[in-house]
Amino acid sequence: MSIQKATLKDYETLSELFDLYRVFYEQKSNPEGARDFIKERLNNEESVAFIALDENDPIGFVQLYPSFSSVSMKRTWVLNDLYVKEKARGKGFGEKLLKKTITFAEGTGAIGVSLETGKDNLTAQRLYERVGFKRETNYFYDFSIG
């Protein structure tokens, strides 16, 4: 098991995982759209992604977006996407990706990492809590347009 930071040369591999992630969240498969989206994020340095490999088989990824806290005047990261292929779940890949995320965020001087997950995604919630994430209940934070 290894975790590597995705570069532009990894966009095809990452986009395949990203498309599977979207399908998991009940979106229609769109390989071309996934390739374009991932390539643009990496090309413009708008996100940071890590790919989990089992030997040389890409089995999961995490994607982070930069943000900032005005109050602390420091960087934060938004963990927007975490996915592990079904065949590899329960083997520690998700936890390794999260720990890599935390190490990366600390290395950038960030004050934290935030994420959202569905209320019914209890498996993910247990994983997040196991590595140190805490449930937030004090703030309003959701507004959807369209």
User: Count the strands?
Assistant: 5
Portion in strands: 25-35%
Order of helices and strands: EHHEEEHEH
- Gross morphology is globular
Mean pLDDT metric: 92
Residues in helices, as a percent range: 25-40%
Side by side, the strands of the main sheet go: 1-2-3-4-5
Alpha carbon gyration radius: 15 Å
- Can you identify the CATH class? Alpha Beta
Query: How far is the first residue's CA from the last residue's CA?
Result: 41 Å
> pLDDT below 50 for ≥5 consecutive residues: which ranges?
none
**Largest sheet features:** 5 strands, mixed
Provide the CATH superfamily.
Gcn5-related N-acetyltransferase (GNAT)
Protein name: GNAT family N-acetyltransferase
Domain N-acetyltransferase: 1-146
Keywords: Acyltransferase, Transferase
GO molecular function: acyltransferase activity, transferring groups other than amino-acyl groups
Summarize the structure.
InterPro entries: Acyl_CoA_acyltransferase (IPR016181), Bact_Acetyltransf (IPR050832), GNAT_dom (IPR000182). The chain is of the alpha+beta class. The protein has helices at about 10-25, 30-45, 95-105, 120-130; strands at about 1-5, 50-55, 55-70, 75-85, 115.
List the helices and strands and how they pair.
Elements: E1 2-5, H1 11-24, H2 31-43, E2 48-54, E3 57-69, E4 74-84, H3 93-107, E5 113-115, H4 122-130
Parallel strand pairs: 4-5
Antiparallel strand pairs: 1-2, 2-3, 3-4
Characterization of the model:
There is one protein chain. This protein has helices at 11-24, 31-43, 93-107, 122-130; strands at residues 2-5, 48-54, 57-69, 74-84, 113-115. It has 146 residues and is of the alpha+beta class. It has a single domain (2-130), classed as Gcn5-related N-acetyltransferase (GNAT) (Aminopeptidase, 3-Layer(aba) Sandwich), CATH 3.40.630.30. The mean pLDDT is 92. The protein has a five-stranded mixed sheet, sandwiched between helices.
